[in-house]
Amino acid sequence: MLITVPCPCTLDQALLDIGRFTALPDCDAFGDHRCHYTQGAQHCVLSATSVWTGAGQTCCYDWDGWLMFSDDFEYNDQYLRFYSAGVPYR
């Protein structure tokens, strides 16, 4: 059975849900905030659990704090699939 956690509706909810989501290194409002792959986003979070393909679910938020984009990136096998939250460098 496929169990996925839906993206939090607002950025405030995503920041408080530290057990299920962590900041995406390439789009972090408190660090690297360029958001090169998600233009227009202020902050993106990555799910701590993966979907059936092994990829992580990504949720991105606009400058007003609302959910603007969510995807599991199953088509991109290099960008997020091997990201480990416990390892600072790839």
Automatic annotation (TrEMBL):
What keywords is this UniProt entry annotated with?
A: Membrane, Transmembrane, Transmembrane helix
What are the annotated GO cellular component locations?
Answer: membrane
Record localization = Membrane
AMOP domain boundaries:
1-90
Is this entry keyworded Membrane? yes
Q: Which Pfam families match?
A: AMOP
* Domain of life per record: Eukaryota
PROSITE patterns (alphabetical): AMOP (PS50856)
The keyword NADP is assigned to this record: no
Q: Which PANTHER family match?
A: MUCIN 4-RELATED, MUCIN-4
The protein, known as: AMOP domain protein
> What is the organism of origin for this protein?
Necator americanus
